[in-house]
């Protein structure tokens, strides 16, 4: 059996590796020519994403590119600790994650082709912007938040929109507490920071009804955190390398249709999350999809089973992602309430409520029950 995977970001290479593990021939087509490299921002993989990578033999290689940060600590701009949780996180540059996954996909026997952009698909054929085509038993859309395959599957699919939050970040020489991933909810913006082997990685998340044309200068950015206690302003001032400004996008209602006629979407193409758990879910999706193709009698049954297994979890995560965004775009009164309430909620949530997020297991070795015809 042969698969064409569109997109060489996170979900695409993982899908390629997982599909190779179940005996498929795979070619990944990525729109951009340049390799991922040390560009973009950073991502954190949680227990769930790491466990899914472990199932297909990729955890060690990915973990080796990042820094393990066993603690998550939340602070308010007034200096109080809002919460703390133990988490098996690995933080790394998104570019390094993509680079490592593409290498692992090639090692697994997949072909990765760059510089080819999907423009259309149907009847088992993918068509690219250069006029070329590729035929396959399955076309997998791992083509991200503005997925082309999503609209091929469903021309009425909603589009992701700016979610009221923009972000910019960098590498900073300013040191922070080792071993802890920090989130500081300031009065005017949120600062996320991670001490890694290559310096402190930081990202400021700034609420704005309309994003600025360009990121403000270093001093203006530092000034956003001037009234806050903690390392935020110093992190900005200590920046040695900048990461590009990104507009957070979301599609709160989700994507109604994930598959049709041997075409399927996964990762951000299926459930645009913004930041948070998006990369983790992309990894999980890809592994579960391959498992369903391994266990089900036909591609159609496998795609139905994949959606049946994944939809409840991604719907729940979309709600959490929305609530996280709301906490970051809170006005002064809501922010005060957040700072008072969060220690209570976080304690409960971290101890009991988040198990569904972190403890999720793709159960790679268990055979999935057959999909019912009605799903
Ligand atoms: C600032 C920021 C911080 C984040 N932090 C985290 C985090 O800490 N933890 C976490 O889990 N998630 C995080 N995320 C989310 C995470 O990055 C995404 O959810 C994840 O990258 C989704 O993976 P994907 O493979 O579905 O899409 P992508 O990684 O976007 O990959 C899609 C790929 O498809 C290619 N492509 C697009 N269109 C075409 C086409 N027509 N033809 C061929 N190729 C195409 C693109 O070039 C790209 O390489 C963050 C996101 C942002 C913006």
UniProtKB/TrEMBL annotation:
Residues 2-319 form the FAD-binding domain. Keywords: Monooxygenase, Oxidoreductase. Transmembrane segments: none annotated. The keyword Zinc does not apply. InterPro entries: FAD-bd, FAD-dep_Monooxygenase_BioMet, FAD/NAD-bd_sf. The keyword Oxidoreductase applies. One of its GO terms (molecular function) is monooxygenase activity. This is FAD-dependent monooxygenase. It comes from Dactylosporangium aurantiacum.
């Amino acid at each position: 059996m042969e698969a064409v995977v569109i997109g060489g970001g996170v979900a695409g290479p993982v899908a390629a590796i997982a599909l190779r593990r179940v005996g498929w021939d795979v070619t990944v087509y990525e729109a951009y020519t340049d390799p991922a490299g040390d560009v973009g921002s950073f991502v954190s993989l949680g227990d769930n994403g790491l466990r899914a990578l472990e199932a297909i033999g990729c955890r060690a290689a990915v973990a080796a590119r990042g820094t393990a940060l066993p603690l998550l600590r939340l602070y308010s701009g007034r200096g109080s600790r809002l919460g703390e949780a133990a988490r098996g996180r690995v933080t790394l540059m998104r570019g390094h994650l993509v680079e490592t996954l593409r290498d692992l996909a090639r090692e697994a026997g997949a072909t990765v082709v760059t510089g080819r952009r999907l423009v259309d698909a149907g009847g088992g054929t993918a068509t690219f912007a250069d006029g070329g085509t590729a035929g396959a038993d399955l076309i997998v859309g791992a083509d991200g938040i503005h997925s082309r395959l999503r609209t091929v599957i469903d021309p009425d699919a909603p589009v992701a929109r700016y979610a009221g939050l923009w972000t910019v970040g960098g590498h900073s020489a300013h040191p922070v507490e080792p071993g802890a991933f920090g989130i500081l909810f300031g009065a005017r913006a949120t600062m996320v920071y991670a001490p890694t082997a290559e310096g402190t990685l930081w990202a400021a998340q700034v609420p704005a009804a309309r994003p600025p044309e360009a990121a403000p200068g270093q001093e203006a950015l530092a000034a956003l955190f001037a009234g806050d206690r903690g390392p935020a302003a110093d992190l900005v001032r200590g920046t040695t390398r900048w990461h590009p400004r990104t507009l957070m996008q979301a599609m709160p209602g989700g994507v109604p249709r994930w598959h049709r006629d041997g075409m399927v979407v996964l990762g951000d193409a299926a459930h645009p999350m913004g930041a948070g758990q998006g990369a983790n879910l992309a990894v999980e999706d890809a592994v579960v999809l391959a498992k369903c193709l391994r266990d089900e009698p036909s591609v159609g049954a496998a795609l139905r089973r994949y959606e049946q297994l994944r939809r409840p979890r991604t719907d729940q995560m979309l709600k959490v992602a929305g609530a996280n965004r709301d906490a970051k775009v809170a006005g002064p009164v809501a922010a005060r309430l957040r700072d008072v309430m969060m220690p209570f909620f976080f304690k409960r949530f971290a101890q009991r409520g988040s198990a569904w997020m972190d403890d999720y297991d793709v159960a790679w070795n268990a055979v999935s029950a057959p999909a019912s015809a009605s799903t």
